[in-house]
Amino acid sequence: MRLLLVLGDQLSPNLSVLQKGDKANDVVVMAEVADEAAYVPHHPKKIAFTFAAMRKFGQSLRDDGWTVAYTPLGDPDNSGSITGELIRRASEYDAAGVVYTEPGEWRLIEALGGMPLKTHSLPDTRFIATHQDFDDWAEGRKQLRMEYFYREMRRKTDLLMDGDKPEGGKWNYDHDNRKPAPDQVTFGGPMQFTPDAQTKEVLALVADRFGENFGDLEPFWFATDTGQARQHLAHWIKGGLPNFGDFQDAMLDDNRFLYHAVVGLYINAGLLDPLEVCQKVEQAYRDGDAPLNAVEGFIRQIIGWREYVRGIYFREGPDYTARNALGHDRALPAMYWGADTKMNCMSKAITQTKQEAYAHHIQRLMVTGNFALLAGIDPAQVHEWYLAVYADAYEWVEAPNVIGMSQFADDGIIASKPYISSGNYIHKMSDHCGACAYRVQDKTGEKACPFNLLYWHFLDRHRERFKGNPRMGNMYRVWDKMDEDRRETVLSEAEGFLKKLDAGKTV
Ligand code: FAD
Ligand code: DLZ
Ligand code: SF4
C-alpha cells in the first residue's frame, strides 16, 4: 500500500493522485497542520474555509469507499507539518511510499522531495496547460504576452470558438469592459451560506488558535463543499454574469462585490473545476442569457490569466518571490494591517479585505498594489501580505500577480510597463474620492491626493529605467513640460508624505 497525499487546495474528486490511487489498498492522508496554517499569518476566514472544506472532502472520500487518515489540528499526535504527518503515517501503515499531486508552492514541492520516503509526484491535471505546454509556447519568445497564450487556450479548450475562428470575430472584447462605477448595482452579491455544525466546530477552533490574526472570522458565509459552490456559481451566472464585463473595473464605497463572481477561492481550493465553470458560462452565452463581452472577459480571466500566471510561476522558479527589480525597500505601512488612513480608497479596500478576505482585481491592482508600488514598498513584504489576507491566495497565483503584475519586481516579465496611476484613475472608476479627506483634483498642497504626488515621484526616481519605454513616453513628456518650480514642489511634498509614512503617522 501507498500513502496518497491530498492537500488543502486539492479538494477535487478528479485529482490525479486519486485517479491513479487504488481504493482497496492505498490510504489517503489529509492533515491540518500548524506549518501550513502559519507560513504567513493567514486571514482567519481563509483558515476556516480551508479546514471546513478539508473536513467535508475527507468525509466525502470515506463515503466513496476510501480509507482516509485525517489529522485534525488539535490531534495530540499532530506533528505540525505535512512531511511530519506523512512520515508518521508511513510508519503507522507500513507504507511502501507516498504519491502526491504536485503542490502549488515551491516551498512544499521542495519539502516533499526531501523526505526520507519513496515519493512519486504526479502532474496537477486540473489545469488546462501542462508545464510543458507553457514552456513550448514560451520558448524563443521575446515577450510572454498573455493575449497570445490565451488564444492557444481557446483553441485547446474549444471555448467560444466558431470553427477555427473566435466567436463573434474578435478574440478579446476588453475594450467594452471599462465602464466607470454604475449608479445602481442590480446583483445582490455572492450567495451566502449559514455555517453547518461541522463548520461551526472549525470556526471555534480557528477563533481559539488564530483569533489574533488580521481579519474578521465572522460572519462566515463561504461555501465549503462542491455542491454549495455550484449553487453559488449558478446564482452568479444568472444575476451577475450579464453585467460582469461592463463593470469589471469599477469600485464603489458601498458595494464590495459589484458583479464579480467570487469564485477564485472555490476554484483554487478544488471545489470547482475551472473548465466546468467556463463551460457553464459559455452555455449562458449560447442560451442568450449573457452578452459576449461579459462571457469572453470572464473566460479570459480563467483560461488566459489564471493559466498564464501559473505558467510563469513554475517557469521562473523558486527565487521568483525574492525579486526586487526596482530596489524598493520601504516597510509595509501599518495601514495594510488595519491602522487608520485618511485615504478613502485604501481604507475601503483594506477594511473590506479585513472583513471579507476578498477584494476584487482592480482594488488589488490599482489601489493597494498601486500605492505600494508608488511608495516603494519592499515587494517581498507586499507579497506576504497578499498571500496572507485573501481567501483565494496560494503562491502559484498570488506571486506572479503581486511580484510581476502589480510590483514590477520581476523586471517586466508579466507587465510591459508598471501598473501605476495618479488619483485620476481611481476617481474615474469609483465614487471613493467624494468622501476622502484628500482632494483628487489637487496636485500639490495640503490636501493633494497622495497618489498624485507619488505618481510623479515614482516616475522621477525611476527615470533611467523607464524613459526609453515606448508606452511611458507620454508620461515623461507631461512631467517634463511642467515648470521646474512645480516639479520641485511635487517632489518635496511627495518626500514629506513618505517621511510621515515612515514615521508611522496617519496619512
Ligand atoms: P472575478 O473578477 O469574478 O474573475 C473570475 C476569475 O478569473 C477569478 O476567480 C480567477 O480565478 C480568475 N482570474 C482573474 N484575474 C486573474 C489573474 N490576474 N490571475 C489569476 N486568475 C485570475 N487571484 C487569485 O486567485 N489568488 C490570488 O492570490 C490573487 N492575488 C492577486 C494579487 C494582485 C495584486 C492582483 C492584481 C490580482 C490577484 N489575483 C489573485 C487575481 C484576481 O484579482 C482574483 O483572481 C480575483 O479578484 C478573484 O475574485 P473573483 O473570483 O470575484 O474574480
Ligand atoms: C492554506 C492552507 C492552510 C491554511 N492549512 C492547510 C493545512 O493545514 N493542510 C493542508 O494540507 N493545506 C493547508 N493549506 C493549503 C496549503 O497551504 C497549500 O496546499 C499549499 O500552499 C500548496 O498550494
Ligand atoms: Fe484615493 Fe486620492 Fe481619491 Fe482619496 S482622493 S480616494 S486618496 S484617489
UniProtKB/TrEMBL annotation:
Q: Which domain of life is it from?
A: Bacteria
- Please provide an example of a Pfam family that matches this protein in its UniProt record: DPRP
Q: What is this protein called?
A: Cryptochrome/photolyase family protein
Q: Which organism is it from?
A: Yoonia algicola
